[in-house]
Amino acid sequence: MSERISPRDVNVLFFGPPGAGKGTQADLxxxxxxxxxxxxxxxxxxxxxxxxxxxAQVRAIMExxxxxxxxxxxxxxxxxxxxxxxxxxxxxxxxxxGFPRTPQQVAALDTFLGSRAEHVDAVVYxxxxxxxxxxxxxARGRADDTPEAITTRFVKYENATAPLLVEYExxxxxxxxxxxxxxxEAVKADVVAALSPLxxxxxxxxx
Length: 207
Ligand code: AP5
Fold this sequence. Notes:
single chain, alpha/beta, 5-stranded parallel sheet, 55% helix, globular, binds BIS(adenosine)-5'-pentaphosphate
């Protein structure tokens, strides 16, 4: 009897500066594509609510707008994706929102996906001018939406994370550049149009 080969996940990365709408769009399009939305920012906010030494460390880093160390981030991400694989076999793929953000995280994701005979299938870059983002974030008022932390987040993004897009383009991976300076529904339509062909016909892990 031949062994059934499990369908592999479609893996999509959402890139964009702080406040571009990565989380908003991933929440909206994940159900349409039947994908999991994995946000490292959300996972860290959940950790912050725990009464542990790690919670205090993560809170201080996030409120300063700095990046959590790669080792902590990668371990958390991998554990969460493995848990999703087991708990939600009906999903067809994963939207990684806010991960990877450093070259070390790119390498860790390559190894993790490679161990599952998977790879990054596409990148969505949501672009919004910085002068639009600042008032957006100040209006939201999250704990890390202070002028100082926002400035640090912008600088970290420009220096450490934006260059990673070039690396994915160099590999020949499709990078979809979406105008995020439109109404939320218009951005969603553009993201769904870019990603639908990738997910079309993709069987879920449970089939
Ligand atoms: P994270 O939560 O990922 O923060 P971020 O990248 O700074 O992004 P935001 O959540 O602020 O913005 P977004 O692009 O998701 O936009 P959103 O949809 O929320 O990470 C937080 C922190 O965690 C990091 O600073 C770091 O410390 C740590 N961390 C996370 N990942 C890490 C990693 N991989 N490595 C190390 N550390 C990590 O929208 C923003 C606002 O705009 C909302 O109010 C929304 O309603 C509004 N909005 C959205 N779209 C529109 C639109 N089209 N028009 C008008 N308003 C809009």
